[in-house]
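Design request, tokens follow.
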């Protein structure tokens, strides 16, 4: 459970909000969201702004407020964070609200340490990346390119 450092009020007429900024390298931060209906069906997808992947978190309810923990790994990047509040049930899902969380960049603290879970997640990510690089290099190494001249001055590159 993180410290609530970002708060927004949403509703039918307010589906987009920007919070107060948080700082790069902070950790254990949560965002509280009020004004959304039927809190039990909502979760949040967090992503660094402009990135192609997100991390899903399930909120905790407190009265008419739902609290989502911001994944610590996203605060390492120093990029603004987008929170997509997503309503989901067994048959469908949609993004109901979008929250922008500005991140103020700062130098990495000397005292920054990583938990065993963070280290294991990083190692797994690097292993997956290396596996994909190896597979790509193997495919590229198997591609044979040759030129075909159509006897009219046109050359076409083809693969074998």
């Amino acid at each position: 459970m993180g410290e609530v450092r970002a708060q927004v009020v949403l509703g039918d007429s307010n589906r987009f909000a920007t919070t107060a900024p948080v700082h790069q390298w902070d950790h254990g931060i949560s965002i509280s969201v009020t004004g959304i209906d039927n809190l039990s069906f909502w979760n949040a997808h967090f992503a660094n702004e402009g990135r192609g992947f997100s991390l899903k978190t399930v909120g905790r309810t407190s009265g008419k407020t739902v609290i989502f923990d911001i994944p610590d790994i996203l605060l390492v990047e120093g990029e603004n964070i987008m929170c997509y509040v997503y309503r989901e049930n067994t048959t469908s899902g949609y993004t109901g609200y979008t929250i922008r969380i500005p991140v103020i960049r700062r130098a990495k603290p000397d005292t920054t340490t990583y938990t065993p879970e963070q280290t294991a997640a990083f190692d797994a990510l690097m292993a997956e990346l290396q596996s994909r690089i190896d597979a790509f290099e193997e495919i590229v190494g198997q591609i044979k390119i040759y030129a075909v001249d159509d006897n009219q001055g046109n050359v076409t590159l083809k693969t074998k």
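Comment from the thread starter after seeing the answer: thanks! The mean pLDDT is 82.
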